[in-house]
Amino acid sequence: MRSFKMSELRRDPIGGRWVIVNTDHPSRPEDFEHETHSWRGGICPFCYGNEALTPSEIDSIRDPNTSPNTSGWQVRIVPNKFPALQIEGDLDRRGVGIYDMSNGIGAHEILIETPYHNKDISDLTNQEIENIISMLCRRALDLAKDKRFKYIMVFKNYGPAAGASLEHPHTQTIALPMIPKNVMEEIRGAQNYFEYRERCIFCDIIRQEMQEKERIILENKYFLSFCPFVSRFPFEIWIIPKKHSIYFCHMPAEEIPPLASILKDTISRVRSVFTSSPAYNFIIHTSPVNGDGGFEGYHWHIELMPKLTRVAGFEWGSGFYVVSTPPELAAQYLKEQK
């Protein structure tokens, strides 16, 4: 481990964002007072036997000889009952003075990960997680057929502090009619690097991480789990395919089991480091769809952020993030877990 003497400013080579890393008095896992989970009571619409409480399922992986919208499923996709966007209608882009507008066209789906109410990803078997990944790929490929959609966002909120309103484990997919600003900034940064150096910046990050080995948590044949050098949050983790690929949903079948394994083990280690399971978000970063050509300099990956701190006035005002635990130290804590 390197020795730390003062805080460091680190610049993200993809988007150009600066972060402040507290290397003088870094926070330990026991220093974080993350929020405990507090859920609303009542009947859970995602539980086994309550299939009638959700909209009709779009797709599922289920036992043979069982019918849609009944028990017998392992993974189930349903429309969000209160969607952010509606799939019916025309986009109808228009201007109102200086403001751009369009209809709220898109798709908003819920993947119910398991029939078991209290099991998160780290509690599931590898096969159950493989089912989740396979279904997410299947739905992304299907949604991408709609030429109105430009970006398929997959994300998970675990715990109320991360934005989850229901306790039952679930992942969300939103198909958007435009590329989000944060995604476009990341893509442009990756493309600029690719055009200048004729290399993928994410592939270069992988090579450097594997050489330095300071921030790697886990590794298998196809994937790397590590705390990025320019983390924005304490214990932020990326899981990235070693082989260059721009689309999550184009993942070869042989890569799904290794991804399931490293995802389960990574989340298990996060839970083990802290005295109670912290809330977290993970987001699958992937290339846009239905565009004018590919983004060959991009590289899909998963970003996982435990909710250990809050973004406050300095971060909102400056765009800087303050990271109280250096990623090198966070990776060391996570590697030590069994």
Topology:
Blueprint: E1 8-11, E2 18-21, E3 59-62, E4 73-79, E5 94-96, E6 99-101, E7 107-112, H1 126-143, E8 151-158, E9 170-176, H2 181-197, H3 201-212, E10 216-219, E11 223-226, E12 237-241, H4 256-273, E13 280-285, E14 301-306, H5 313-318, E15 321-323, H6 327-335
Parallel strand pairs: 2-15
Antiparallel strand pairs: 1-2, 3-4, 4-7, 5-6, 7-9, 8-9, 8-13, 10-11, 11-12, 12-14, 13-14
Helix pairs in contact: 1-4
Describe the structure.
The strands form three sheets. A ten-stranded antiparallel beta sheet has the order 3-4-7-9-8-13-14-12-11-10, with helices on both faces. It is α+β, with helices and mostly antiparallel strands and 338 residues long. The chain has one domain (8-24, 51-335): HIT-like (HIT family, subunit A). Helices cover 24% and strands 22% of the residues. The radius of gyration is 20 Å and the shape is globular.
Compact description:
This protein has 338 residues and is of the alpha+beta class. It has helices spanning 126-143, 181-197, 201-212, 256-273, 313-318, 327-335; strands spanning 8-11, 18-21, 59-62, 73-79, 94-96, 99-101, 107-112, 151-158, 170-176, 216-219, 223-226, 237-241, 280-285, 301-306, 321-323.
Keywords:
338 residues; alpha+beta; HIT family, subunit A; ten-stranded antiparallel β-sheet; 6 helices; 15 strands; 24% helix; globular
Shape: globular
Task: Indicate the structural class.
Answer: alpha+beta
Kindly estimate the percentage of residues that lie in beta strands according to DSSP.
Answer: 15-25%
Q: Please estimate the helix content.
A: 10-25%
Q: Main β-sheet, in a few words?
A: 10 strands, antiparallel
- Order of strands in the sheet with most strands: 3-4-7-9-8-13-14-12-11-10
Radius of gyration computed on alpha carbons: 20 Å
For CATH, the homologous superfamily is named as HIT-like
CATH architecture: 2-Layer Sandwich
Average predicted local confidence, pLDDT: 90
- Give me the CATH fold name: HIT family, subunit A
- Number of β-strand runs: 15
- Count of the separate structural domains: 1
Order of helices and strands: EEEEEEEHEEHHEEEHEEHEH
Please report the distance between the alpha carbons of the first and last residues: 20 Å
Q: Can you tell me the CATH class?
A: Alpha Beta
SS summary, helix count:
6
Poorly predicted parts? none
